[in-house]
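Appendix B. One record, verbatim.
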Amino acid sequence: MNPEHYLDNEEQTVVIVMTSGPSEPHRCATPFYLGAVMASMDVDVHIFFTMEGVRLMQNGVAEDMVAMAGGKLIIDFIRDAKRAGVRLHVCHPALPGYKIEASTDLIPEVDEVNRASELADLVLRSDKTLTF
């Protein structure tokens, strides 16, 4: 086995920027699955939802959605990621465009509702940034 394929035991931070939402369900499971895997490897993982991605954090959306026919519900991928330690951030400026109210319409798994400046800060201090 090549040891270079494994983490070097230094703290790492990964930010996943999630812009995909219900119009592209096939893109909506992998970020949570990958985030959970990395978090279980002691990586500090943050998923930041913006654009249509904020809809995944809206009550009632992920509970009825699958990435592929017969697949696991997206809400179950979200909960697996949370159990692994992934932090979920929702972009506050994106909410009004989808008529989502931060105080009443978001699922309880959301950790923070942030401005775009928080996304900028997360990206600048992360070791890796992925987009979906």
